[in-house]
Amino acid sequence: MSGKLISRTGSDGDTSHHAVLGSPCWVSLAARDLSAAEAFYRAVLGWTFRAATLGERFRVALAHGRAVAGIGAVAPALQVPVAWTPYFAVADADETVGRVQERGGTVGVGPIGFPTGRAALVSDRAGAVFGIWAGRLIRDFGAWRRSAPLWLRLVTRDAFDAAIFYGEVLEWTSPGRCDVRYEDGAVVLVCAGEPVASLCGGGPESAPDPELRPRWQVRFIVPDAAACARAAEEYGGTITGEDTDAGGECVTLRDPEGAELAVFAPREA
């Protein structure tokens, strides 16, 4: 594995718990009703849940026994919208927040201290929200990254401007971290030799419909996108878009509280 690593292990020396600085390290849903969110995602994605170390308002979602995401009933308390948010690994949350502000981004929440680290919710210059995390990762982070059942996609007005912003804030341009490539009209983030996110232009800077505003979209890889969509509607969600031209079937959904996500079933080779 190439790239500068941060260790979140303790003393056992298991390198499967490492993350490349600047890379995605987690995704989390800010919800209002924890029980309702669990019921929806259990039905749509087949997840089970366990308690999280961050407190009783948080759960860790498991797929086939592996941690894949977090859910926290924190939207009212933190005054943030119900939404899925990607988190990026950083060495120092306070320094990273400073870089966000210096480059025209805004700070929504934090940095806040948790028993396992420090986190903040921030926005880029176009208004897309993302999180930063400096601290201990889940113990099976390596498994999460290797089998990452997700893809991150930034929809924004100017992918190149976004790449400059994120590259400077998350220090993608520093030697030995992540690589940034241009492929098929999008900027692709590659960490440890593995594509993990894309930055796509064309999102309006300001739109009356929140669905059209610049945002990070979390896409979960599933075996059957249509089945997930049917389950979503049955459990109070809505279908907002479908695309069959991106190497498989992708369906964009909103859960009952309005959080956007996408499910993607790759086309068999």
Automatic annotation (TrEMBL):
Gene3D superfamilies: 2,3-Dihydroxybiphenyl 1,2-Dioxygenase, domain 1. Coiled coil: none annotated. It holds the Pfam family Glyoxalase_6. InterPro entries: Anthracycline_SecMetBiosynth (IPR052164), Glyas_Bleomycin-R_OHBP_Dase (IPR029068), Glyas_Fos-R_dOase_dom (IPR004360), Glyoxalase_6 (IPR041581), VOC_core (IPR037523). PROSITE patterns: VOC. Residues 23-135, 148-266 form the VOC domain. It comes from the Bacteria. This is VOC family protein. It comes from Streptomyces antnestii.
